[in-house]
Structures are given as C-alpha cells and as structure tokens.
Design goal:
With 336 residues, the chain is mostly helical. It contains 18 helices and no strands. The relative contact order is 0.07.
Length: 336
C-alpha cells in the first residue's frame, strides 16, 4: 500500500487565507478560537508559495462546502445530498458530504495541542498503555510522534502496539477519559468522536519519530506480535518511496537487487520512479532495462507487487545496517 499523499487540511486552510488576502484573512481569523489561530498562523508563515492550480482547487472546494452547508440548512442532509447528486453526480456528492461531516466533527483532546510534548508525556505516562495509545491516536502525527518519543523507553513499544491494533472506542469511555485528562490541565470540552488508532495511525507517527525510538518499538513488536510488526514495516516504506532516497543510496540499492526483480517492479511503477532508477544506472544498463520492459509483455499484478516487496526488503536491510539512511523524524540525513 502506497503512503498517503493527500494534502493536509491545514495546508488547504493556509492556501485559502493567502488567496483571500490580508484584509479578508484577518476577518476570518478573528472568528476562530485562539488555539486554531496560533496553529493556522504558523502554517501560513511556513507557506511561501501557493500555486495557481492548487489555489483554484482550494477555492472550488470551499465553495462546494459552502453551498452544501446551505442546502443542509434549507432542507437537511437528505435534501443537500439530493441537490448535490443532481449538480455534481453521486460520487462527488458523497465526497463533499463526507468532508462536510468531518469539518463539523471536533476531535477530542483539542486542549492538548498547546501542551509541550514532554509535559504531556509526563502527565499521561502513569496511565495504562491502552489509555496512552488512545490519547496519542487523537493528536496530530507530528505531536503524537514527539509525545511517543518522550515516554519512558520501556513503555513505547507497548503503546505503539496498542495504537496499531486499536479500532473503535465508545463515546462514553472517550468522554470519561477526556474529563480526567482535561482536569489535569484545567480545561475540558466534551466531544463525540469514536474512531482512532489503527496501523495507518502508527505508521504516520513512526514516519516522524527518531530512529532509536522506531528501532526500540520494532524490537518489542517483533517479540510480542511478529505479524503485526511485519505489516507495519510493509507500510512504513513502499517501493514508490524510492524517490525519497538520494542518488548514492539508489545506486547502492541497485547493486544489491536482482535485475529481473527491478524490471518487474518498474512494470508497475510510475514515470518518476522509473526516471530516478534510470538516472542512477549506466547508459548501457538503462538501455538493457528498457528493452527488458519493452519485451516483457503482460505481467500479473501479484508478480509485480512481490518483486517490489523484495526490493523494499533490501532497502530496509541496508537502512538497518547503516549503509543507507531513510530520512525521517527531522533528525536523519540520507547518507551512504
């Protein structure tokens, strides 16, 4: 499964405010809670350029959401869906309604966003690992990674495992837990949102933690739940992520993999991945690889995926051996 590439909601908000200009943006910000203003302002400050195509996409999406909300106020959810079905088709209508529902839902533990990770970790570290996992699952990935890294080393793997295996939590349990935690920070809000965690949540966090924390978590998971550890590894780095490696690392990987596996893997890869591979081969080797692909003919998807998995396994092995480095957590640089 490829790593999710969707633009975050916060980046869309920043792009929208920049597109509206300073006067209108200021009026919008005045209507928001202080916590949101700080977070959004930071995102705006870190956004140096909004491409024209992305700006149009964000503005279109905002107008669709605005119109859909208007339909809901006129005649309820069913009426809004019916109008949207006729206007943009069932598929687009369903997507707009989903986004509108998500926009109206408020995540629990919002008060924790302003808490420094070390302080938050100190407060929750005495809780049961399942409780800690639930709290971390509702944080943004960057903050969740920082909090996980600040927990006692022996606790991190147990919390990570519970994040990956968590599915649903009853609103009652969630509300009770939030009340207890909020009281420790002298703040409380009651929300009704009941889905958290999962492997995808843990992968997002592990992509941002430091290497020592990741290694410790996997060592414990390998002992406690090997199948789960392997599933997480598969999602942590996928074949398409080879473009994240520098040229030296790609050349090192090419030397370690079977040429037949490389041809099979590229059969199902995008142009960007293929170009990075060709760039790091000799002219003759690249020509031979192109010829192999040209004369290969139809290939089963399963064969392509298996070849890509074997190459990913080699990349992970080289990474673990320190011969290449997959950058993550803001601390690693890719080296050979």
């Amino acid at each position: 499964m490829a790593r999710e590439k969707r633009v975050t909601g916060m980046k869309k908000i920043a792009a929208l405010l920049i597109s509206l200009g300073p006067e209108l943006s200021a009026k919008v910000l005045k209507l928001l809670p202080d916590d949101d203003i700080e977070i959004i302002s930071a995102e705006v400050a870190n956004t140096t350029l909004v491409e024209a195509g992305f700006r149009e996409q964000v503005l279109d999406e905002m107008m669709q959401m605005y119109e859909a909300k208007g339909y809901m106020l006129e005649g309820g959810v069913r009426y809004a869906r019916e109008v949207l079905d006729r206007a943009v088709g069932p598929a687009k209508s369903a997507e707009i309604m989903r986004k509108l529902t998500e926009a109206n839902a408020v995540k629990p533990f919002r008060f924790a966003k302003k808490v420094e990770p070390r302080q938050l970790a100190g407060v929750i570290s005495e809780e049961h690992p399942q409780t800690i996992a639930l709290i971390i699952s509702y944080l943004e990935s960057d903050q969740a990674a920082a909090v996980l890294s600040q927990l006692p080393p022996e606790l991190r793997p147990y919390v990570a495992r519970r994040i990956a295996t968590m599915e649903r939590v009853s609103p009652e349990v969630l509300a009770e837990l939030e009340t207890v935690l909020a009281s420790k920070f002298d703040s409380f809000s009651n929300y009704d949102f009941a889905v958290a965690g999962g492997i995808k949540s843990l992968v997002n966090i592990l992509n941002r933690v430091d290497r020592a924390t990741e290694k410790m978590i996997f060592e414990q998971l390998d002992r406690d739940d090997p199948p789960l550890a392997e599933e997480i590894r598969k999602r942590l780095f996928v074949f398409e992520d080879v473009i994240m490696l520098d040229d030296g690392a790609i050349q090192r990987v090419i030397r370690e993999i079977d040429s037949k596996d490389l041809a099979l893997a590229l059969k199902g890869a995008g142009a960007e991945v293929s170009q990075r591979i060709y760039k790091n081969m000799s002219k003759r080797a690249a020509e031979m690889l192109r010829e192999d692909l040209e004369f290969m003919g139809p290939i089963r998807l399963r064969d392509v995926e298996e070849a890509q998995a074997r190459i990913v396994a080699v990349i992970r092995k080289l990474d673990e051996a320190g011969e290449i480095v997959i950058a993550r957590g803001g601390e690693d640089a890719i080296i050979v």
